[in-house]
Structures are given as structure tokens and as C-alpha cells.
Amino acid sequence: MPAGSDVLADILAIKGDLEYGEYLASECTTCHRHDGTSEEIPGIVGWQAKDFAAAMSAYKSKSRAHPVMQMVAGRLGNEEIAALAAFFESLGR
């Protein structure tokens, strides 16, 4: 089983709170464009919640390299990641 998969399963078991995710998203949209376009920094708007949660849990476990994202993800709890995942997925509908 890949490293961090238990954390990912825990995150995916949580129903993300859209309003809380919207509140938390302001930090994300400092760098990631809210309109979903991307230039140097990848867009995250419309990602499937499971893909967003997988990326964040990989940053949190430091199995995915990017110092800034590792720092940001490291400060988030599972409920916060689930909320962000639900929020960004909802923007793609």
C-alpha cells in the first residue's frame, strides 16, 4: 500500500463542507487562479475531490516534492483538506 494511503482513505471518508472549503480557499487562490486558468502554477478548480485529496495528502506526507505545498498541506487537517477538495470540485460543475 502506498505511503499516505491511510491518510487519503481517512480524508475521502469525510464529507467536505463546501462553505468551510470556500473560506479556506482564499489561501489557495493566492497562487492558484480562481478562474481555473493556469500559467506557471497548475489550476485546481474543477479537480475531482479524490484527486485533490490525493495530491494534498502526498504533499502532507512529503512524498510529493514542493516545499511551499508541503508547508501548506502540513498545516491542514483531514477535515480541512476534505472541505477544500469538495469546494474546488464544486467549481467545475
Task: Give an overview in words.
- There is one protein chain.
- With 93 residues, this protein is mostly helical.
- It has one domain: Cytochrome c-like domain (Cytochrome Bc1 Complex, Chain D, domain 2).
- Helix content is 57%, strand content 0%.
- The chain has five helices and no strands.
- The longest helix is centred in the C-terminal third of the chain and has 13 residues, at 78-90.
- It is globular, with a radius of gyration of 12 Å.
- The mean pLDDT is 91.
Give the overall silhouette. globular
Percentage of β-strand residues? under 5%
On the 0 to 100 scale, the average pLDDT is 91
| CATH homologous superfamily label | Cytochrome c-like domain
Amino- and carboxy-terminal Cα gap? 32 Å
List keywords for this structure.
Cytochrome Bc1 Complex, Chain D, domain 2; 0% strand; globular; mainly alpha; 93 residues
Annotate the secondary structure layout:
Layout: H1 5-12, H2 18-28, H3 49-60, H4 67-75, H5 78-90
Short note summarizing the structure:
The chain has 93 residues and is mainly alpha-helical.
